[in-house]
Amino acid sequence: MAATTAISGISSRTLAISQPLVTLRCSRSAVSYSSSHRLLCHRPLSSSRLLLRNNKHRVQATILKEDEEKVVVEESFKAETFTGKELLGEESNTSSSSTSAFELWIIKLEQGVNVFLTDSVIKILDTLYRDRTYARFFVLETIARVPYFAFMSVLHMYETFGWWRRADYLKVHFAESWNEMHHLLIMEELGGNSWWFDRFLAQHIATFYYFMTVFLYIISPRMAYHFSECVESHAFETYDKFLKASGEELKNMPAPDIAVKYYTGSDLYLFDEFQTSRAPNTRRPVIENLYDVFLNIRDDEAEHCKTMKACQTLGSLRSPHSIIEDDAEEESGCVVPEGAHCEGIVDCIKKSITS
């Protein structure tokens, strides 16, 4: 009888201890979308390895306040810092449990190549468009929207073969291309495409860039997304410098009609869709002059940077609207199981044969 009482006491104490532990784990991993606080989070991944990687690459939203005129972009978004050194230093202590030293070397190589290519194009643009701002912006926006076409092309091909079906990726990338298209329309309305040479150069660079991105995305989606992050980072820095240099002049100039229609229209679903680091309906621009237009274009580029950075972690991207829909269903998770993903065409073929 005494033994039974002792065992019962131990069991009750064990249960009492395990309950807060379970509660603690749930509080750290189970994440929800709260309409009262406008927080956009994600649920835990089904794989512990992916969970570790997601935690290390978590992207934080930067929410604009009414009295702010600037979006603060993380230092990692600056093109000159894409060397891979920070990544190696951050992951060296956990490489045995997450990624191998060889994989880290591959990541460093990919990022080094991307930085070299981005810096080379920037030097060419600096030489050709030193004093021609709107023409430079036209070329930038013609190039910047190309990767999203390339991503969707490859994703459609994967869907055709039944390898890789990511509806959220298609939604977000289309919304990104829609946003960049309106940037381009704004630059055209400002006269950035008035000279035939600028149109010729932008269109031919864009054509080459499309096929290059398709090739990169087939071989290594992570590298393709990182290259796009480099391009978007340069775009952010370019617009930020322009605002600082010509801000007062821009405040006295009217906003193009296409900008007013895009940023303040009644249907902003696609505008919310590409901003995966923030909740829908939390950013509503006010367009009163040309300064406000370029301010919001710059902030759009910051959001593209965050989305491209999130895409580099396998399976981490979700549509902001899908998260709201899934949050209403308690059993639905925010991330597709690891087995449904593949990294590049080689991995897709391998999984299609072995599955």
TrEMBL record:
Gene3D superfamilies: Alternative oxidase. Binds 2 iron ions per subunit. InterPro entries: AOX, AOX_sf. Keywords: Electron transport, Iron, Membrane, Metal-binding, Oxidoreductase, Respiratory chain, Transmembrane, Transmembrane helix, Transport. The keyword Nucleotidyltransferase does not apply. Its cofactor is Fe cation. It is an enzyme of class 1 (oxidoreductase). Pfam families: AOX (PF01786). Its EC number is 1.10.3.11. It is found in: Membrane. Its main location: membrane. It catalyses: 2 a ubiquinol + O2 = 2 a ubiquinone + 2 H2O. The chain crosses the membrane at residues 137-158, 200-219. Belongs to the alternative oxidase family. This is Ubiquinol oxidase. It comes from Camelina sativa.
